[in-house]
Amino acid sequence: LPGGLSAQTLNVATNDQVPAGATFTRPAGAAGGTCLNASMSTAGLATFDVPATGTCTVEYQVCAAAPVTACDNATLTVTAQTADMSAAFSNVPAAVGPGQVVSGVTLTCTNVGASAATAATCVPSLTSTAGGTTTPVSITGLTCSATPINVAVAGSIVCSFGFTAPGTAGGADTTTTQLNFSGATNATNDSNAANNSATGTSLMVDALNDTTSSPGGLTGQTFNVATNDQAPAGATFTRPDGVTGGTCFNASMSTAGLATFDVPASGTCTVEYQVCAVSPTTACDNATLTVTAQA
């Protein structure tokens, strides 16, 4: 029977040879076997809890009074059928932007064992890391099979969910550096704890505002805005066209984050930019380079 089940029954009289009216009993205490909550009806119906793994026993005796008591004894051996629940994530974005709303992350908990899993569970969780501090992040839109449930061989519990990344898009510093996904599964008859957990990581894309100064009136000046930004390898920098791209004349932005601009004769001007990682959904943040003319 699947491990962990309680109050299971078996008629031990089925294969016994006894006259009508014979009585079945189970010795009390340790002499009655190793199964928990075991009992024996006078007609031979054994009741017992199945161990999570391995085997247990129910000892019993059957007696006929004819006219002196004639008895024999035997053992019921109960073997737990074991399962193996395994957890795995899919659709975890490699990167996210501050305040980004993400959906469709999936935790799948599959029974890869040889027997049905009893009272199986599948639970995702999410935290953020900022320096040495870890903070829980709320999971949204969780759709998941009701647990605990029994899961057939090769069957699965599938949990889909979303979240909103910490922070706010813009040039301010978002202290979160990454999101940490954790998934846990188990069953009362699980036989392999090594694959009961799954993990995943999303890096935070964080563009920070920059400032630079040069003598007023210089043209074709450059500044690397990527220096203080947090972005995964392969992220791309862009500058919006027209007025949304800032107030500096002749401004441009290379895909690697090198801004080019003319310094105003006096005062300041700006170069607006965005950095995005594709992972598999686009994760972006934006910031501003402020250029000051030196007198």
Order of helices and strands: EEEEEEEEEEEEEEEEEEEEEEE
Arithmetic mean pLDDT: 94
Which secondary-structure class do the elements indicate?
mainly beta
Total number of helices: 0
Strand content: over 45%
Instruction: Quote the distance from N terminus to C terminus.
Output: 86 Å
Instruction: Please tally the β strands and state the result.
Output: 23
> What percent of the residues sit in helical stretches (DSSP H or I)?
under 10%
Radius of gyration: 34 Å
Biggest sheet features: 6 strands, mixed
Shape, principal axes of CA atoms: rod-shaped
**Uncertain regions: pLDDT < 50 for 5+ in a row?**
none
Task: Compose a concise summary of this entry.
It is built from no helices and 23 strands.
Describe the structure.
By secondary structure, this protein is mainly β. It is built from no helices and 23 strands. It has strands at 8-11, 23-25, 39-40, 45-48, 55-65, 69-79, 85-90, 95-96, 101-111, 117-130, 133-136, 139-144, 149-151, 156-164, 178-186, 197-204, 210-215, 221-224, 236-238, 252-253, 258-261, 268-278, 282-294. Strands 8, 10, 11, 13, 15 and 16 form a 6-stranded mixed sheet that branches. Strands 7-9-14-12 form a 4-stranded antiparallel sheet, with no helix packed on it. Strand 3 (39-40) and strand 4 (45-48) form a beta hairpin.
